[in-house]
Amino acid sequence: MNDMRSGFHQEMVDLEQTLLGVADQAEQMVGMAVDSVCIPDMELAARVVQLDARIDRTYLEVHDRWMTLMARQQPMASDLRMMSVILHLNTTLERMGDQCVNIAKIAQVTYGLPRSERIVAQIREMGDLVRPMIRTGVEALVRRDLDEARLLPAMDEPIDRLNRNMYKEVVDCGPDAGMLEWATRMMIVSRALERIGDQVVDIAEQTAFLLTGEMMEFNEEGMAASDRNGDVP
Amino acid sequence: MELVENVPMVDIATVQSPPVSTPPPIAVEARGMGVYYKAFRAVKDINLDCVTNKITALIGPSGCGKSTVLRAFNRMNDLIPGARVEGEVRFDGVDIYGPGIDPVEVRRKVGMVFQKPNPFPKSIYDNVAWGAKVNGFKGKMDDLVEGALRQAALWDEVKGKLRESGYSLSGGQQQRLCIARAIAVKPEIVLMDEPTSALDPVATLRIEELIQELKSRYTIIIVTHNMQQAARASDFTAFFNMDEDRAGYLVEYGRTEDIFTKPRQQMTEDYITGRFG
Question: What's the confidence (pLDDT) of residue A173?
Answer without folding.
Answer: 86
